[in-house]
Amino acid sequence: MEVGDVPGHIVGVAQQSGLTFYAKGPASGQIATRLNNLYYDVVKGKGTFTAYIVDAFQDGSTLMYIANGTITPIGEGNRAAFEGTYEITGGAGRFEGKKGKGSFKGERIGSPKTGGDSYADFSGTEWK
Does 17 have pLDDT greater than 70? Predict the structure, then answer.
């Protein structure tokens, strides 16, 4: 949605789905389905976002995160780099009560108008 105060100022919401591949921690070697609801505020593709993420595992357990970061366009705007911090806010099943935090970096590939794909590398503290 165009804000109207300066050219290219957009606020919006998006929902993305995908997969999470766990390399470390209590879920090491597992793959979860990911649902990501995010809110963003950008001017000409550069700005901030907050994402609420739920990873669901085959046994029905879930792990929940909140992530805050920045978005920076690359080139003509069909790609964007993003980075920020995250906090594990809890979980269900075998991840009930889990906590943790860390940082991430990634990239969106493709136009945001068509829901371009993205990837991110997360690193952080051991879950408690």
Answer: yes
